[in-house]
Amino acid sequence: MEMTLGKDSITNFPLRKKKNVYKRIFEIDFLRGILIILMVVDHLAYDFGILAPSFFFLSGAPQWLEDLSGWCYEYWYFDWRINLRYAVIALFFILSGISAFLSRNSLKRGMLVFGFGALVSIVAYIISVSFETNMFIFFGIISCLGLSMIIYSLFRLFIIKTIGSIRLWKWVALFLAILFIGVGYWMRIEATSVAVNSENWWYLINGRLTPTLQSYQYISGHVFTPIIYDFETKFNIILGRFWYGVDWAGIFPYLGYAFFGGFIGELLYSKKRSLIFGKNAEKEHKVERALRPLTYIGSKTIYIYLFHQVALALVAFIVFFLFGVPLR
């Protein structure tokens, strides 16, 4: 990244080029920039309100830090935050579908994301067992996102080669999107033991009606022991029938959102240029200069998404440690 001084210092973020082939699409990066900032703020609240207090004795913290942690804990369980979180996740999957259409190597990117999700699950298991705390992750959002990108890319390649028509593929993608989303919510209705009515139906969207599996137990009252489930149960966790761990996202209905994003990409971005500015490059350049920090963040979403939680958790732990909060 080049840094300049003087009157142009505010524009020190590089333009978002794609190796001189085509320029990145402004509105997609702009929206992704907003979404990733919301996600970072959300995870920062989680780290200060839930994660760090599970490793430190909050009663030994300064009053301001205890108050901050308490507010973050309450924020995490606000109904509006829970609903907003799942709206943001759905939009992320839709944008991932659009990006998979625009990308030349969406299958490779999907494998990278899925592999990182597997690594996160392994690290979370080690931390949970080592510190005897519930940080278990089996099939989290990162894993679901990566697998969705892989499935979408393989479906697109197979269908286009089979029927020989890109135009027809986009309608196949729409059909599959509706099918997968429908299957996902039917699966949640079928799995829940709670009667779905006019007052709680929206709990289906955020998954709060999905049966939750216990991740650990105490043997003889004091031996912390992870619960190892059989293959069928793990498969149902991946499908979306059971909720497991602190971060979970079944492949249904989120795979459907990725396919819907692919449909939008095929329908609206076949020319791979902005819908807002069209061919007006001068106007786009002026707007991008003004919003370049946000669009630059949006262009690096995949890297921020993969690594931001590690950095935020370290920040929370360092703050608790520096202010003398004792470890559990």
What does this structure look like?
With 328 residues, the protein is mainly α. The chain has one domain (22-285, 294-322). It is built from twelve helices and six strands. It is globular and about 60 Å long.
In terms of structural class, how would the helical and strand content be classed? mainly alpha
Q: How many domains would you count in the coordinates?
A: 1
Q: Helical proportion?
A: 55-70%
Main sheet overview: 2 strands, antiparallel
Mean pLDDT: 87
Total helical elements? 12
Q: How many beta-strand elements?
A: 6
Order of helices and strands: EEHHHHHHHEEEHEHHHH
Strand order of the largest sheet: 1-2
Radius of gyration: 22 Å
Strand content: under 5%
End-to-end span in angstroms?
42 Å
Instruction: Outline the low-pLDDT stretches.
Output: 1-22
Please state the overall shape, judged from the principal axes of the Cα atoms.
globular
Short note summarizing the structure:
With 328 residues, the protein is mainly alpha-helical.
Question: What's the topology here?
Answer:
Layout: E1 17-18, E2 22-23, H1 26-51, H2 63-76, H3 79-102, H4 106-131, H5 141-163, H6 166-191, H7 203-206, E3 212-213, E4 216-219, E5 223-226, H8 231-239, E6 243-244, H9 251-268, H10 281-290, H11 292-299, H12 301-322
Parallel strand pairs: 3-6
Antiparallel strand pairs: 1-2, 4-5
Helix pairs in contact: 1-2, 1-3, 1-11, 1-12, 3-5, 3-9, 4-5, 5-6, 5-9, 6-9
